[in-house]
Amino acid sequence: METGATKATVKAVALISGATSVKGSLHFVQGPNGVTHVKGKITGLKPGLHGFHIHALGDTTNGCNSTGPHFNPLKKDHGAPSDNERHTGDLGNIVAGPDGVAEVSIADRMVNGLINKNFRSVHCRLYEIRLVLFFHQII
């Protein structure tokens, strides 16, 4: 992008499906102000807290073993979303209610730029966008 050019809003959708009962969709909207909003709904989770993070690889052929580490291009230590020192892919926790449904609404500055690098289309399947989101229950 040229200096002084207006930054556009970039959007992408991740559809969550697979062999498990976990399903849903997440909408990523990266605004010109540098904030990426992640909104959506995930069903089929166990009730409670679930870690929410982006992995480096979009390869799910061997489950979690093939997705690589958390997305961390800046080589930072693991941390909470509010920490300055954290993986870019560390997005905190989401909460699934008693019905197994989690409503996701996250605003994050560090994820900014991820869509430009990895999303090739506004409507993508989860595995095609080279972005893997994982939800693990926090005990």
From TrEMBL:
InterPro entries: SOD-like_Cu/Zn_dom_sf, SOD_Cu/Zn_/chaperone, SOD_Cu/Zn_BS, SOD_Cu_Zn_dom. PANTHER family: SUPEROXIDE DISMUTASE CU-ZN -RELATED. Its EC number is 1.15.1.1. Belongs to the Cu-Zn superoxide dismutase family. SUPFAM superfamilies: Cu,Zn superoxide dismutase-like. Keywords: Antioxidant, Copper, Zinc. Gene3D superfamilies: Superoxide dismutase, copper/zinc binding domain. GO terms for molecular function: copper ion binding; superoxide dismutase activity. Its cofactor is Cu cation; Zn(2+). This is superoxide dismutase. It comes from Citrus sinensis. It catalyses: 2 superoxide + 2 H(+) = H2O2 + O2. Residues 22-112 form the Superoxide dismutase copper/zinc binding domain.
